Amino acid sequence: MDADERALITQEIDGLGADDELHNWIQQQFDAPLDASMVASQADSPQAAREMYLVSAAIVDDQNPMERAWLDQLAAALKLPPGMPEELDRQVLSPIQ
Predict the structure, then answer these.
(1) What pLDDT is attached to residue 96?
(2) What is the model's pTM?
(3) Residue 54: which domain range?
(4) How many domains in the chain?
């Protein structure tokens, strides 16, 4: 991931109302290898799990099979309830204006 991609991701999460804690978490993720189980282990509440999924959904290309597979792995690792990933995907694709 290059600097332009990181800047774009930061801009996207700002649009979702990210706070400093979420920005710090994103920076840690930039620097770490992708591991859905490790990412999910950092969710300390259902709200945090949803936010982690939302941020991930906002930055991946769901038309890319590898990125979509990772997002599906993350949803499973976060133990999101049935239907929740799809609802969160809709929120990312259709932000409130």
Answers:
(1) 56
(2) 0.66
(3) 3-93
(4) 1
